[in-house]
Amino acid sequence: LGDVYKRQVKGDPIIPLQHRIPFEVQLPTPSSGSQRMFFDKRWTIGKVLDKAAEAGNIPNNNHLPGQPQLVLVALKSGAVLSNVTPIAELVGQNTLLPLDALKLCYQ
Fold first, then answer.
1. Distances (CA, A) of 98 to 37, 58, 62, 73, 106
2. Rounded to two decimals, what is the model's pTM?
3. How far is CA 42 from the centre of its chain?
4. Which of 20, 58, 91, 95 could join 53 in a cystine, given CB atoms 3.0 to 4.6 angstroms apart?
């Protein structure tokens, strides 16, 4: 990735460079728009969801029964991604690729 793009991508600076994978994350509120974020490719989708919600200041009540649940959707396929699946597995299957768009939404 180019230097300009790297400066525009948000993420935890503790993640080693070789483990970073960037995505375009669309947030559930129109005023929030979308953000370029990088995550650790060893993380599960559930952890990515938590980190994206935190970075976008989006309420995440997935731990509370009866509350709307946040999910991540791969925009190119329209599939809701399973929270227990590691990013590396989805990349290995070409389900997700670096810079793909993900939508964080309530279900």
1. 11, 23, 26, 15, 24
2. 0.88
3. 13
4. 58
